Amino acid sequence: MMDKAELKGRIARLQEKMRENECQAFIIIQNVDLYYFSGTMQNAQLYIPAAGEPVLFCRKSYQRALQECPWPIIQVGGFKAIPRHLGDLGLEAPSRLALEYDVLPVANFLGVKKIFPHAKTMDGSSWIKGVRALKSPYEIALLKNAGQKMAEVFSRVAGIIRTGKSEIACAAELEMEARKTLHEGIIRLRGYNQSLFFGHFLSGASGALPSFNDGATGGTGLGAFFPQGCSVKTLAPGEPITLDYVGIYNGYQVDQTRTFVIGSLPEPLYKAYQVTLEIQDAVIEQVKPGIAPSKLWDTAVSIATKNELLDHLQGYGSDQAKFVGHGIGLEVDEPPVLARGFDSPLLENMVFALEPKFVFPGLGMVGIENTWLVSANGAEKITVFPDELIQIPE
Length: 394
What we know:
The protein is of the alpha+beta class. It has two domains: 4-132, Creatinase/prolidase N-terminal domain (Creatine Amidinohydrolase, Chain A, domain 1, 3-Layer(aba) Sandwich), CATH 3.40.350.10; 134-392, Creatine Amidinohydrolase (Alpha-Beta Complex), CATH 3.90.230.10. It contains ten helices and 17 strands. It has helices at residues 4-20, 31-38, 62-68, 82-88, 106-115, 125-133, 137-154, 167-180, 267-286, 293-306, and strands at residues 25-28, 43-49, 55-60, 73-75, 96-99, 120-123, 199-203, 240-249, 252-262, 325-327, 334-338, 351-354, 357-360, 364-367, 370-375, 378-381, 390-392. The chain has a six-stranded mixed sheet. Strands 11-10-12-15-16 form a five-stranded antiparallel sheet. Strand 3 (55-60), helix 3 and strand 4 form a beta-alpha-beta unit. The longest helix is centred in the last third of the chain and has 20 residues, at 267-286. It starts with a helix and ends with a strand. The mean pLDDT is 97.
């Protein structure tokens, strides 16, 4: 069971935002938010009043929820019973009720409206994002553990890659090694219709192929149903082999990209890789509490422009991603976002992934990505595997 004091701190920070917005209650439905505030991901909804302890209404499995969640738990056959149970607990039906508008399906929204017909509903999504963006010491320890585990996994890559081997065969071996370290497999994203399986193992022209997901990397994938990531393409000398993988342990995720090559890279790609390291160094040198993420994006753009690589930064043409970094924790796409227009300052204990990458159609993609903690004095690296280009003998 997660430490109750950890959960109490999370609930207290959310309740503060609720009171600031004259909100009487919040119903948490989405799985990741449910886990964050209750410690369980069973089939349940968490009712959080503006003051006092929350109550978990659980459909299945009640017994597992008892083991995982420290809050009062009421077993229900359906969530329409929530108002009756609130009355039994001496709680009034709320007149102002917050929901997770950014992720809540319409059917669930209408269901809540039906059981609380007189409540004015409010969007509490930004409150949750603000609370979750600041990591506790407990969370930071889990993220650092994930960073160490992914360094262990990546240390085995050089023994997996060889000429003539397919991307999917390499990815399968790598992902097996990750599972041996207790990698949990499923990568959680908040963005609608976004999905990811472990990460991307890409080589040569496949690494430059865009896809629907909101990021610099795409990949051929195995078909139109999952058009991203590794394919049956075989590896060849002299082409960039890019591994963009998420490590997830105990729910907490780190994002890490490294570039490999069998033999050596063509000079233009090698130089571009060196520029990604230059961008990383320049951005991280600026990171401190109070700086606007948009300024970090500007730094990346300035260096790419200076090196005549702006057209290749984070993709190519209309498929370029418009950010160079993103927050990460229980989900890959948390705040902050390092992009134009994101001016709310970085705060101590935020965690983000910085991922400068250059895409060259027909040739491939080179890049670096690390996960960083914003500390009082700057940025602390969480993903500790070495950054340099890794050359594998032919």
